[in-house]
Amino acid sequence: MASAELTGAEIVLKSLVDQGVKVVFGYPGGAVLPIYDAFFEQNKIKHILVRHEQGAVHAAEGYARSTGKPGVVLVTSGPGATNAVTGLTDALMDSIPVICLTGQVPSHLIGTDAFQEADTIGITRPCTKHNYLVKDTQDLAKIMHDAFYVATNGRPGPVVVDLPKDVMINTGPYVGPKRAQHSSYKPQVKGNLSSIKEAVELIASAKKPLFYSGGGVVNSGPGASTLLREFVRQTGAPITSTLMGLGAFPSTDESFLGMVGMHGNYEANLAMSECDVMICVGARFDDRVTGRLDAFAQKSKKIHIDIDPSSINKNVPVDIPIVGDVGHVLEDMLKVWKSTARKLDKKANASWWATIAKWRERDCLKYLPGKDIAKPQYVLETLQKAVDGKDAYVTTDVGQHQMWAAQYLKFQDPNRWLTSGGLGTMGYGLPAAIGAQVAHPKSPVICVTGESSFMMNIQELSTAVQYRLPVKILLLNNRYMGMVRQWQELLHGNRYSESYMESLPDFAKVADAFGLESLFADHPDQVENLIADMMACEGPVIAEVMIDQKENCFPMIPSGAAHYEMILGPNGDQPAVSAKGAALV
Amino acid sequence: MDKMTERHTIGVLVDNEAGVLARVVGLFSGRGYNIDSLTVAEVDQNDHQSRITIVTTGTPQVIEQIKAQLGRLVPIHGVTDLTVEGPHVEREMALIKVAGGGETRVESLRIADIFRARVVDSTINSFVFEITGSTDKINSFVGLMRPLGLVDVSRTGVVAISRGDKPM
User: pLDDT tens digit string along B110-146?
Assistant: First the structure.
């Protein structure tokens, strides 16, 4: 066992290579200099230098979400680690596998308030799936591989490995990734077969079944999406999706009712409310989906497939819980369904679809076209036409534009839609687009954003330019934090407290200063050309469209309201928001 | 909306590594769960495993969440709800300091005898009693000592184990 020992920095690099890592997003600093030195002498792993550590984590998330592989981040101690916290929390909420390597002051200085020291393990404990402080180079290789195992198995999530500088300089043995099972973390992958049979029985007996799929289907891998499609087709039941699940089932399919939830489609929300059997596949009954809990889907028996046992019965009690990976469970369900030759009641199903057809007639995404100023919905419809059949990746920031993108874009495949769902992180879109573009250099990657969100990580333009990443930034500018303004209209008597963006920069000059192209449209007639030009750009580009400042995002279930209390448009009878609802987020 | 809360005693087997207790405690504080008492000590020196006993109160739904949330912490080997999994033994130990003289001093000794508390330290005007038993028993003893010159109480919190021959 006298194989040559490696330095800690070399072990880090070697374990990344052995884990199949191709790209690391990072930012150097004092505590990680030994690792950066190891990076300097190799060409197996590409390093993308971001401009802020938050951007590094979002870029890694974009890389992970668009490839299904874990994203890797390398930042320094102290401020490097604390800047990464928002990204880590985002990855935790949306179950994105990220390995974040943080520098740490040398072991003997830990606890002395040394320069750039922070209690990274303490700070990141609640915002990671797990974290490790490596105290000895002897343990380093094992911990590195464990970190990848934990981040990617079970419900994926971010893992921090905190690396004191001396541990990087000292030497230790290297061990490869192939080793025995993790001693304690063994998530259940296969679902319980008798529960699966019970679930199939319940689905077959349904008169108004509804599939409700979520990000878990995307996380499980493309196989799970294929199985979901087949199962939905086999049953002939309708399906709706959460924000995170978009793309797992094709949006253009007749069976697809559109997104569910606060800004979900009328037909999807009413179907949730009226169904008699709900099959929740890799979703977690989030408050954006359920609305008022005591009025949520009261008429249905619920089947819940989730790899995380803590998601089950957390917000909504379910009748048949199935813990397991949705891919495995769907495979077994489909087998049982076929082998027992199940079929839905034809008559009941037809009448269920007739009801849904009536709801669809409301055409809830209809909007009044803008005459002198573009409506955001129109911009997104135009984008949809431009990306049709192009296998594009779309990222968003957070707010109205995010919801419009979710409503008006048509997703055909999983892993193409990258958005900050759980945490709702403004500033996610641009770095995530950078990460996706790094992973898919030939594919169009479009960041749909608003002027306020864009400003939150605007420094990453410099990263896009440095690596010639042709991300297309479609900037919907209404000079407001639009969603904040919308809530102020709904809940606070149109008092637009601090939601107007004063002193916005000239984004064309911003583009110019950073060294990328820009396009501009302030009239609906220019939108089509703008988007065509944007798609044709060979480098990164900001395509700015001035949109109607007053446009709000509908349909909307106001907070504290039930699915059947949706606001459909600006002129509808708006139910007053209850005091209880106003206190919610 | 006020659902009945229940008191549950939960046993957790964990890797005895740095920060594992912080993970468990952080989970409770971060998600707003109650800790009535918590004890921890290494129970297996070879495998470096510790056993944590947590007494908590919550609605049945919250108790289920607590167990599921504990179960997904990476260094946790097992979670057992002793309250639902059948008969079990719960014990707590306390050290109780009582100071005084004359009749109250004698009275404290008499009561200690009834409760099978032992005197583990004595000065001319004080005792330290060691008492083991259920939480209720210790509460009663402390209550009785109060008028007799109670000075300090130090309690371990509940440790618990299931009856019978099966491991957790």
Answer: 999 999 999 999 999 999 999 999 999 999 999 999 9
Are A160 and A120 spatial neighbours (Cβ–Cβ below 8 Å)? Answer: yes
pLDDT digits (tens, 9 = 90+) for A508-526: 999 999 999 999 999 999 9
Q: Tokens 């409700």 — which residue? A: A212
Residue B76 and residue B114 in one domain: no
If one looks up domain A193-361 in CATH, what number appears?
3.40.50.1220
Cα separation, B33 vs A248, whole angstroms = 35
CA atoms A328, A128, A10, A180: torsion sign? negative
Can you give the residue ranges of every domain in chain A? 6-172, 193-361, 376-553
Closest alpha carbon within chain B to A119: B19
What ipTM does the predicted assembly reach? 0.91
What is the model's pLDDT at position A577?
A: 72
A333 has catalytic annotation: no
B76 touches A at CB < 8 Å? yes
Identify the burial level of A80 via C-beta atoms within 10 angstroms of its C-beta, where 0-12 means exposed, 13-18 middle and 19 or more buried: buried
A440 touches chain B (CB under 8 A): no
Residues of B in Cβ contact (< 8 Å) with A134: none
Which homologous superfamily does the CATH classification assign to the domain defined by A376-553? Thiamin diphosphate (ThDP)-binding fold, Pyr/PP domains (3.40.50.970)
Give the type of residue at B149. Answer: G
Q: What is the percentage of chain B residues whose pLDDT exceeds 70?
A: 98
Confirm whether B46 is domain-assigned: yes
Kindly determine whether residue A125 and residue B22, on different chains, have CB atoms separated by under 8 Å: yes
Of B22, B23, B75, the CB nearest to A184: B75
User: Least CA distance to B18: which residue of chain A?
Assistant: A133
**Lowest-pLDDT choice from A371-380, A390-399, A485-494, A520-529:** A485-494
Comparing A6-172 with A193-361, is the CATH topology the same?
Answer: yes
- Expressed as residue numbers, the domain containing B134 is 89-160
